[in-house]
Every structure is written in structure tokens, then in C-alpha cells.
Design a protein that fits this description.
alpha/beta, isoprene biosynthesis, 17% strand, TIM Barrel, iron, 4 iron, 4 sulfur cluster binding
């Protein structure tokens, strides 16, 4: 059988980031030359100050660089400045974004301390008001942003799309000689909603460098199509996210597929992975997934990489799985401390391999790696550092000994030298 060459060459490297206008959000740069930023959102009742502070702190500790909170009523608006102040006392200086729907104009006007405490306002054009109130209430929020010198994300969502705009475009499409399909019209309505709203915000006086756009849908192919088109039609900074991605592996896979393609094409300045947490589940999972998308694609480094083989008939012992899990969990738990204590540690690579087939080679490629004995192999485990074999571990305490070697390697390589006396 003769293998066919691919029709198009496979991309070896990401395309250059599209040039966008940079937007400063509470000290975090989005767009322009800045790296792609990780964002998340709380699911607490914002009026519950204790719960919201705790979750924002958890998200920030996990690595979320911007956190969005719901501001849906007077009680939540009144709580925002208290939440911000409490976080600052805890040493958590993460920018807070207020998510407004329906009555955002009124909440911002009635609660000026809330308007001042937030780092950014998020406006959904489909939920800002209806009929003759829509543009007026949108403008009121924009004017509030100008008054408090805040950026705005104009966030269109297909679940709350401006129905007047969609109906008009559907009517215009029906009169064409060759009408487009309904999904194509829907995508155009999403894009126009974002662009028309941005134009209105700029006409109102909001500077271009104070606007971020998003156009979220829950279907992977629709999301890719919308953002490709939107990126060709504007230089605004873009926030990416597959809305209502779902729970568990479905949400992770769908978000990774959609965001991975767009990021590879140079599209996107900030991302959020909208996972549905399992009951009682950890909200920080969405931050971890967003970081791993950026890190595995080579755009940013957040934590050391642990390479581990998937296992096969040669690895009937679970030792390598347990060791890889222990090291990976230890890294994630200690990263907030290690970022301060060990500058550059996020570039570390660790290999935990299960047998002799690829174990030694993969371990040599890592900064530090171990090749554990597979089924029927000699019960010894060579350890490699910086490409060289440095030790062979044997006995019942291989896992504990290698774990300690990893910690010692981190301290030796990334620890700050002691000050001279």
C-alpha cells in the first residue's frame, strides 16, 4: 500500500499571534504583545462575601489571572467592594470583572463603590435591554466605564443573542437569490452584534484600547468559524471560550479542540474553559485545563511537566502510575510557593517511565527522570539528571527516594544562592 501525502502541510509551529490592540485590566495586559491570559469565573452567590472571597482566592492561587464574578442585584453589587478589600488584605490582587445582565446600568449607577472596585465590566449586548432601551442602557454602562476608567468586554453569547438583529439578518438572507444556511446567518449575527456594539462604545467615547470582544457558542465548529471571521474583521483583543462546554472529559475535550485550533492560528488574547463542575467538584479545574492547553501547545509555561508512559503489558505493576501521580500532585500543590522560592521552576521536566523500552531514552530527555522496572525486568531503576545517569535505585522505597531526588534537584537548580556573609 502506498501512503498518500497530506493535501496540506502539517503546521510545525503556531502561526504568529494576530496583532491586536492591548487592553490593561487591573494591571494585567490583554492583547498586544502580551501572552495569552487565563481567566475564570466564580459560581458563588456574590452577595455571600465569605464564600466569594474564598473561591476567588482559590482560583487566583490556582493561576487564574483574571476572575469574573456575577453582579446581578443590589446585594451582590454592595458586596463587591468588601470582596475586593478582603482579598487585598489576604494578599490576593487578582483583577475582578463584573458580569452584568439586564440591570447593569442601574447597579453601576446606584453602587459607585462597586463600579470603582471592579477592574473590568462585562456587557452582554443581548441582555442589556430590549427595543428602544437597548442602546440607551448599553451607553449608560459604557459611560460609567469611561467615568471610572474601566475597560469593557463586550461578550456576545448565542444563547442570548440580540433577537432583533438576528431576525433582520434572517429576513435579508431570505431575499437573496442564494440564501445562506440558518447557522451561517446565526454566526453572522453574533459577529455583527459584537462589532456594532464595539462601534457604539467607541462613538460614546470609550477608547479602542479599553475594549475586548468575545463571541461564544457551544459548538466547536461554529466557534472556530465565528472567531476566524471575527479576527479578520477587527483588531480588538479577543477573549476565547467555548460556552457551556459541559462536564468532565466532554467539556475538556471540546474546549481543548476548539481553543487549540484557534490559538494555533494566532487567534485569542485571553481564554476561559467553561467546565461544569461535578457536584461538590473543584472550581479550579477550569484554570488547570486552560493552563494545560497553553502549556502543552508551547505558548506559556505554568508548572513543571511530568511525562509518564500510558502503561502496557510490560507494566503490570502500578508503581510508575502512583509515583507519577504523587509527583504531579506535589508539584501542583506547591507551585504557588515554588514560584516565589524557585524562579524558573515552571520550565522543569520530569519523566516517570514504566519499563526499559522507552524509559531510559525518555528519562534522558527530561531534566530528571526515572525508568522503573517493567514486568520480568531486573528490579532496578536508573535515574537520569540532565541527560546523565546518576543513580540506580532498588528495593521497596524506590518511589520515596526518587521523589526526594526531584525535590533536591529543584532546590539545587532553581533555589536562590545564599547571600554572602
Amino acid at each position: 500500500m502506498t501512503l498518500q501525502a497530506p493535501v496540506e502541510p502539517v503546521l510545525a509551529d503556531p502561526l504568529p499571534r494576530r496583532r491586536t490592540v492591548g487592553v490593561e485590566v487591573g494591571g494585567v495586559e490583554v492583547g498586544g504583545p502580551a501572552p495569552v491570559v487565563v481567566q475564570s469565573m466564580t459560581n458563588t452567590d456574590t452577595a455571600d462575601v465569605d464564600a466569594t472571597v474564598a473561591q476567588v482566592a482559590q482560583l487566583a492561587k490556582a493561576g487564574s489571572e483574571i476572575v469574573r464574578i456575577t453582579v446581578d442585584r443590589n446585594e451582590s453589587a454592595a458586596a463587591v467592594p468588601r470582596i475586593r478589600d478582603r482579598l487585598l488584605r489576604l494578599g490576593v490582587d487578582v483583577p475582578l470583572v463584573g458580569d452584568f445582565h439586564y440591570i447593569g446600568h442601574k447597579l453601576l449607577a446606584d453602587h459607585p463603590d462597586c463600579a470603582a472596585a471592579l477592574a473590568k465590566y462585562r456587557i452582554n449586548p443581548g441582555n442589556v435591554g430590549f427595543k428602544d432601551k437597548k442602546d440607551r442602557q448599553f451607553v449608560e454602562i459604557v459611560e460609567m466605564a469611561i467615568r471610572h476608567d474601566k475597560p469593557v468586554r463586550i461578550g456576545v453569547n448565542w444563547g442570548s443573542l440580540d433577537q432583533e438583529l438576528l431576525t433582520r439578518l434572517m429576513d435579508e438572507n431570505s431575499r437573496l437569490a442564494q440564501p445562506l444556511g440558518a447557522r451561517a446567518v446565526m454566526r453572522e449575527a453574533i459577529i455583527q452584534s459584537a462589532l456594532l456594539s464595539a462601534a457604539l462604545a467607541e462613538e460614546t467615547g470609550l477608547a479602542r484600547e479599553r475594549i475586548i470582544l468575545s463571541a461564544k457558542v457551544s459548538n466547536v465548529q461554529d466557534l472556530i468559524a465565528v472567531y476566524r471571521d471575527l479576527s479578520r474583521r477587527t483588531d480588538h483583543a479577543l477573549h476565547l471560550g467555548l460556552t457551556e462546554a459541559g462536564m468532565g472529559s466532554k467539556g475538556i475535550v471540546a474546549s481543548s479542540a476548539a481553543l487549540g485550533i484557534l490559538l494555533q492560528e494566532g487567534i485569542g488574547d485571553t481564554i476561559r474553559v467553561s467546565l461544569t463542575p461535578e457536584p461538590g467538584g473543584d472550581r479550579t479545574k477550569e484554570v488547570q485545563v486552560a493552563q494545560e492547553i497553553l502549556q502543552t501547545m508551547g505558548f506559556r509555561q505554568f508548572i513543571p511537566i511530568v511525562a509518564a508512559c500510558p502503561g502496557c503489558g510490560r507494566t503490570t505493576s502500578t508503581l510508575f502510575q502512583e509515583l507519577a501521580e504523587t509527583i504531579q500532585n506535589d508539584i501542583r500543590v506547591h507551585m504557588p510557593e515554588w514560584r516565589e522560592r524557585y524562579p524558573g521552576v515552571e520550565a522543569l521536566s520530569v519523566a516517570v517511565m514504566g519499563c526499559i523500552v522507552n524509559g531510559p531514552g525518555e528519562s534522558k530527555h527530561a531534566d530528571i527522570g526515572i525508568s522503573l522496572p517493567g514486568t520480568a525486568e531486573v528490579p532496578s531503576a536508573p535515574v537520569y539528571m540532565d541527560g546523565e545517569k546518576v543513580a540506580t535505585l532498588r528495593g521497596a522505597n524506590i518511589a520515596q527516594e526518587f521523589h526526594q531526588m526531584v525535590l533536591a534537584y529543584i532546590d539545587r537548580r532553581f533555589g536562590r544562592p545564599a547571600a554572602a556573609e
